[in-house]
Design goal:
Layout lengths: L2 E7 L3 E8 L5 E7 L5 H16 L6 E7 L2 H7 L6 E6 L5 H4 L26 E4 L2 E2 L5 E3 L3 H10 L7 E4 L9 H13 L5 E3 H4 L5 H31 L6 E4 L5 E3 H6 L7 H16 L5 E6 L4 E7 L2 E2 L1 E2 L2 E3 L2 E3 L3 E2 L2 E3 L5 E4 L8 E6 L18 H7 L6 E2 L4 E2 L2 H15 L4 H23 L11 E5 L3 H12 L4 E3 L6 H7 L4 E11 L5 H21 L8 E10 L6 E5 L9 H17 L7 E11 L21 E9 L2 E9 L8 E3 L2 E4 L4 E4 L3 E5 L5 E5 L6
Parallel strand pairs: 1-4, 4-11, 5-6, 5-9, 9-10, 13-25, 25-26, 32-34
Antiparallel strand pairs: 1-2, 2-3, 7-8, 11-12, 13-14, 14-15, 14-20, 16-19, 17-18, 21-22, 23-24, 26-37, 27-30, 28-29, 28-30, 31-32, 33-36, 34-35, 36-37
Helix pairs in contact: 1-7, 2-7, 4-5, 9-14, 10-11, 10-12, 11-12, 12-13
């Protein structure tokens, strides 16, 4: 038997899913994350899931890992000390940046400008210049360049970025400086911008490459440490890391280009959601991933996640291909508080995380969290993670009571209901960012909910968005790990080709795309994916002449064999521009960037259909309990999800429990069990499989 193992490390829990490929049998484990060294939590989870499956650790054939190491390095400011080499005259490229301030009018008054990841005192200039046409304007001065590199040797830098003007056209100078850096600064990893982001715009290219250098030592240490720990445990399986765009890359290559991993964790959830939604017959849906620390949302159209060209982590926005995921600081561990000044209830973005965690965890936490509110309302069972975490109901009530006292409310239940309502509105705002603000009506989409805390809030989010059905896949708490284990390897090539439509031709664009495809295909073939098993996707960034931004447009592979590449691009660009901005311009269109993604085949993983049953779910009924709903305590059925059969219909109010998550069905709604074991929640009267 062949076993694939998916691992997803979150802020609170580490999720592990073991998948037997032939039968589709899955085994899952959920253990507390270990922020000081994530590999400890990963190994704990692997041991636990292998023990449950009754196999030796050495029987694991492949490991696929979604990681937040790069993300956390950015958010916590604990990346490497980066040195930066620029072209003479461009030393302050990061300080000048772009004249954009987030927030409303006059936001610049209170917005603290973040410090660049490479300090000015660690930035040096080299004499030598490439022109915009790729011709050498000024030769490199080797003596001056080596002097500048040596000046960094005593600065304690831990990584080096080389980003020279116009290197996206010709990388000769960058490669030469990188070679000298290897001689003058031995042992220091070097990132060059023409490799990380071979596209125009000096600031974005420099910032993205500096970010790559910033997280590279941390990611390399983690990957090497994890690989060594796996080997020590007798696990000889190849290790692959999930990229931000939902594809896999070998661990060694991931350590070289870690800027492509910044949204590795959330991308796994979107990939897993797409797999289960497809089995249930839905290709257009929103994803809602609520964990212990944050909530990630995305939009999937036609079974494919929307891919963006900007990755945002905290205040940092880099040009890297990623699933278009939006994140808000709303999770099970989000802390509720009442500021003295406003006396208005707030929830998050501060989180109790894994340590100490919510008060219910009994690990020293005393502040009221969303998890504590759900405990008070009766929505959570007495244990989480299969008995890994026992909940302290009294501690939750005491914590939430402090909110009730601060607001003059009658009892902790009213305060808990307020906490849940506010966090739901926060997450609704995030879902609007990927739907309404992108020109999509959420009522045209289903809503796939997962994460340890997601199914508790999914029904309420469906009611707010009008997105039906709400789909809760099996094992929603470890769905990110499922996505890691069921996706494919991927590679990408890109280049800038600035041409007005009148200045280029179908043949020129077709030739450039073919060269990029060949380059990416060769790298994927070197990883063991034969050419005949590869899938190629093309994307072109376009704009109207005079615009300062581009819009990515997908191009069908068959366009490369026809003679109408530019006309297809023009039609697709106009349609996307109309959808986004509701108007078109008469200006000539321009090609800016070309991008090709080559993917291997998705694994042929079986899935086990549930035993057919009727609408009666009584065989899965554990007991009847009390929950707070619609302003009062009401009776609710408590069900064991593992005992449900396909076709069962659970009328709300109801709580459906399982090892890694809990699903809440509100009054006036019903959950139908699909044959693929997903729960499909709709308003009562429309609940069909």
């Amino acid at each position: 038997m062949r076993y694939r193992l998916g691992v997803d490390v979150g802020g609170t829990f580490t999720d592990v899913l073991l998948l037997e490929e032939t039968s589709g049998t899955t085994y899952r484990a959920k253990t507390p994350s270990t922020p000081a060294d994530q590999s400890i939590g990963v190994l704990n989870g692997i041991r636990k899931v292998c023990a449950e499956a009754g196999i030796a650790l050495a029987d694991v054939g492949q490991i696929f890992h979604g990681t937040t190491v790069a993300t956390n390095a950015i958010l916590q400011g604990r990346g490497a000390r980066v040195g930066l080499v620029t072209t003479d005259g461009f030393r302050q490229v990061l300080q000048i940046a772009r004249s954009f301030v987030p927030g409303g009018l006059a936001g610049w008054i209170i917005w603290p400008k973040p410090e660049p990841l490479a300090r000015l005192e660690h930035t040096v200039e080299v004499v030598g210049r490439i022109g915009a046409d790729g011709a050498e304007v000024t030769p490199l001065d080797e003596h001056q360049a080596r002097d500048q590199l040596r000046s960094l040797s005593g600065a304690g830098i831990e990584a080096l970025t080389v980003s020279l003007i116009n290197s996206y056209v010709d990388d000769t100078h960058e490669k030469q400086v990188a070679q000298w850096a290897g001689e003058e600064l031995p042992g220091i990893p070097v990132s060059i911008s023409s490799h990380v982001l071979p596209e125009m715009r000096e600031y974005e290219r420099t910032l993205t490459t500096v970010a790559n250098s910033y997280v590279q030592p941390e990611v390399s240490r983690y990957v090497n440490n994890l690989a060594r720990s796996l080997a020590d445990e007798g696990i000889d399986a190849p290790l692959s890391i999930l990229r931000s765009d939902g594809g896999l890359v070998q661990a060694e290559k991931a350590a070289e280009d870690p800027v492509s991993l910044l949204l590795s964790g959330p991308a796994g959830g979107v990939t897993g959601a797409a797999w289960f939604a497809e089995q249930a017959g839905y290709t257009d849906f929103l994803t809602f991933d609520m964990g212990g620390t944050s909530t990630d949302v995305a939009l999937v159209l036609g079974g494919e996640p929307r891919i963006g060209r900007e990755t945002k982590v905290g205040d940092l926005a880099v040009r890297a291909t990623s699933v278009d995921v939006r994140t808000v600081g709303a999770g099970g561990g989000s802390i509720a508080h009442v500021p003295e000044l406003t006396r208005a209830l707030r929830v998050g973005p501060q989180s109790a995380g894994a340590d100490p965690g919510p008060a219910a965890y009994g690990n020293g936490g005393t502040e009221p969290t969303v998890t504590d509110a759900n405990v008070v309302l009766g929505y959570l069972p007495s244990e989480l993670a299969g008995g890994e975490v026992e909940l302290d109901t009294a501690a939750s009530r005491a914590a939430v009571a402090s909110i009730a006292d601060a607001m003059g409310l009658d009892g902790p239940e009213a305060a808990a209901a307020g906490i849940v309502d506010i966090v739901n509105e926060n997450m609704f705002g995030a879902l609007r960012l990927v739907s309404v603000q992108q020109g999509y009506d959420p009522r045209d989409f289903a809503l796939v909910s997962f994460g340890g805390a997601g199914p508790l809030h999914a029904n309420a989010l469906g009611r707010l968005t009008g997105s039906w059905p709400v789909i809760v896949p099996p094992s929603p708490g470890v769905l990110c790990a499922y996505g890691d284990a069921t996706t494919c390897v991927r590679d990408e090539s890109a280049r800038t080709l600035i041409r007005a439509f009148s200045e280029t031709s179908d043949d020129e664009v077709r030739q450039a795309l073919s060269e990029l495809a060949d380059s990416a295909a060769k790298r994927l073939a070197a990883e063991g994916v034969p050419r005949e098993q590869q899938t190629v996707r093309f994307q072109v960034d376009l704009r109207y002449h005079g615009q300062g931004f581009e819009i990515p447009v997908d191009l069908d592979a068959d366009a490369l064999t026809g003679g109408d590449v530019l006309s297809r691009l023009g039609e697709a660009f106009d349609a996307e521009h109309q959808r986004l901005f509701s108007f078109l311009l008469k200006n000539e269109r321009e090609v800016i960037n070309l991008r090709v993604t080559v993917s291997g085949p998705r694994p042929d993983v079986a899935w086990q259909p549930l035993t057919e049953g009727d609408a009666d779910p009584s065989a899965a009924l554990i007991r009847t309990g009390k929950v707070w709903m619609d302003g009062a305590m009401v009776s609710a059925g408590i069900y064991d999800r593992a005992k449900l059969s396909a076709g069962n219909v659970i009328e709300g109010p109801a709580v459906i429990t399982e090892m890694d998550s809990t699903t809440l069905v509100l009054s006036g709604h019903a959950a139908t069990v699909h044959p693929n074991a997903s729960l499909l929640i709709r308003p009562s009267g429309g609940a069909t499989a």
